[in-house]
């Protein structure tokens, strides 16, 4: 990367990690994706602010990654910097029914921590992989509930490196969307308002939903979860099944025979394979069902 040395020099006191030409396949659930020019892991908010200012000074574009469970990264990788929030963003703080969770905290850990304290409200996220920050960006959830249900506000760092607070209303959270992208902010931590309940009861609900997912989703293969959003009246998986596309394969990418809205990396898939298969499905469903499927997976990088 041009000016890498100068960039590093411009951030004295940066405590995090900086890696060059880091393969994104190591940071996505698909196990797919070429190198990021710079892979930066700021340790805490101060580090993140320093990094954002440094990158802006050298006009380096920035992309933030959570746990990479909803990403299709190009085989050529990502130009500029990829930022993954470090250990300082992985904390959870509980005061009564108010919970503050760091954006790098795994959703599964947040559930464990809150259930352990007898706090309900996040069960809709049972079994959803990824981080709190990624879940806010995507407004992740299931038919049982979304992260927006109990979210009160977030703290985030804007493009100038300033720490800002935004309420749920300001985030415009809808089905698999929020204004996080348009606002160009990086979520740092998230405040929730939960409700006291019997931990055993919450646990039972969560366990049964996790079990149900195991029965309906392909195990042990790289996927990004649902590839397409559900259209207004219907289910993307049913549409894909209705055109007989289960098991359809391009290169190493295959439509799952267990869940038609999942595309599996059979082990050798490239990003181009997955993208081509997605395009084929969109075309087939438009022709046969008159519906245009909208990707849920975030397609990023240099194509
Ligand atoms: C097996 C499987 C099952 C899944 N099931 C579900 C499901 O039931 N429901 C559901 O909603 N999703 C599901 N998903 C998709 C995925 O888990 C969610 O979208 C999740 O919220 C993504 O979180 P992440 O941390 O992995 O984000 P990433 O995939 O890393 O990123 C997703 C987007 O969020 C942005 N982002 C990440 N962190 C931040 C941050 N701190 N600040 C600003 N932007 C950020 C990224 O730039 C990117 O645009 C599934 C995925 C898999 C692999």
What is the topology?
Layout: H1 4-9, E1 17-23, E2 35-41, H2 45-57, E3 62-65, E4 71-73, E5 78-84, E6 92-95, E7 98-102, H3 107-116, E8 119-120, H4 132-138, E9 141-142, E10 145-146, E11 151-157, E12 163-167, H5 168-171, H6 180-183, E13 186-193, E14 195-196, H7 199-216, H8 236-242, E15 249-250, E16 253-255, E17 263-265, H9 271-289, E18 298-300
Parallel strand pairs: 2-5, 3-5, 4-18
Antiparallel strand pairs: 1-2, 6-7, 7-13, 8-14, 9-10, 11-12, 11-13, 15-16, 16-17
Describe this structure in words.
The protein has 303 residues and is of the alpha+beta class. The chain has three domains: 4-87, Uridine Diphospho-n-acetylenolpyruvylglucosamine Reductase, domain 2 (2-Layer Sandwich), CATH 3.30.43.10; 90-216, Uridine Diphospho-n-acetylenolpyruvylglucosamine Reductase, domain 3, CATH 3.30.465; 236-300, UDP-N-acetylenolpyruvoylglucosamine reductase, C-terminal domain (Uridine Diphospho-n-acetylenolpyruvylglucosamine Reductase, domain 1, Alpha-Beta Complex). It is built from nine helices and 18 strands. The strands form six sheets. The chain has a five-stranded antiparallel sheet with strand order 6-7-13-11-12. A four-stranded mixed sheet has the order 1-2-5-3, with helices on one face. A three-stranded antiparallel sheet has the order 15-16-17. A hairpin with a 5-residue loop joins strand 11 and strand 12 (163-167). The longest helix is centred in the C-terminal third of the chain and has 19 residues, at 271-289. The chain is globular. The mean pLDDT is 96. The protein binds flavin-adenine dinucleotide (FAD). The site of flavin-adenine dinucleotide (FAD) has 32 residues, from strand 3, helix 4, strand 9 and strand 13.
